[in-house]
Amino acid sequence: MASISQKHIQLALSLPPRLRTFFARYPAATILPEGTAPESAKTPYQEEAPNPFLSTKHPVTGRWHDPKYSLRRQAELVKLARTHGVEELLPFTTKGTEERIRKRVELGLRVKGTGVGEKVKGHKHERHLVAKMEKRRKAMLDMPDLIREWKKVGKRNWTRWPK
Amino acid sequence: MAKKAKSRVIIVRLLSMAMTGYFYTFTRPRVARPMSLLKYDPIVRRRVLFLESKKKFTGGR
């Protein structure tokens, strides 16, 4: 028993300081010494945020608080843990390898905005293009009549000026 | 001090009635009637009616 935990300690000491600090603050339930209840052995960090990778809702104010670790730092930790083979000890994160694979399976190599019910917003001039061309087309269809009327009324007596 | 006198001639904008937003600018005497004329609109590539629009020069003073 003691030798196993000794081995674990040796392993832990071989980790980079960044990971070591993280696991000291947020130890996974699986690496706690045997016999300790996971609830009572929580570190103060864990009591504050059970999963530092997820945003939490404040129980009193009801406001959402950002995760303790930003997505960038989460990804960095995941990469670091993966190279040292301890990724399964990290709490759940969207940056984890499994989650990434799951997302890739779910979504594939799709291009955002091309799915059913999705559309690309586009630039303003692109959004207004159809209406603009329609207005222009209508104006051109009415143009002969307008010119005829303008010639009949005469430029001296014309009253319909554009706003 | 007296106010500055209004100029005798004004700059007017003649807007294409093809709704292309294309316009010509001319000067005309302030007291004259508003301008209107048939002129070429390069966007629809045709001669269309141009009418003087209300003076609201937002671009270029």
TrEMBL record, chain A:
Residues 17-152 form the Large ribosomal subunit protein mL59 domain. Pfam families: Mitoc_mL59. InterPro entries: Ribosomal_mL59 (IPR037507), Ribosomal_mL59_dom (IPR040922). GO terms for cellular component: mitochondrial large ribosomal subunit. GO terms for molecular function: structural constituent of ribosome. Residues 35-60 are annotated as: Disordered. This is Large ribosomal subunit protein mL59 domain-containing protein. It comes from Lasiosphaeria ovina. The lineage of its organism: Eukaryota, Fungi, Dikarya, Ascomycota, Pezizomycotina.
Automatic annotation (TrEMBL), chain B:
GO terms for biological process: translation. Pfam families: Ribosomal_L33 (PF00471). Keywords: Membrane, Mitochondrion, Ribonucleoprotein, Ribosomal protein, Transmembrane, Transmembrane helix. Coiled coil: none annotated. GO terms for cellular component: mitochondrion; ribonucleoprotein complex; ribosome. The chain crosses the membrane at residues 9-27. It is found in: Mitochondrion. The keyword Transmembrane applies. GO terms for molecular function: structural constituent of ribosome. SUPFAM superfamilies: Zn-binding ribosomal proteins (SSF57829). Belongs to the bacterial ribosomal protein bL33 family. PANTHER family: 39S RIBOSOMAL PROTEIN L33, MITOCHONDRIAL, LARGE RIBOSOMAL SUBUNIT PROTEIN BL33M. This is Large ribosomal subunit protein bL33m. It comes from Lasiosphaeria ovina. The lineage of its organism: Eukaryota, Fungi, Dikarya, Ascomycota, Pezizomycotina.
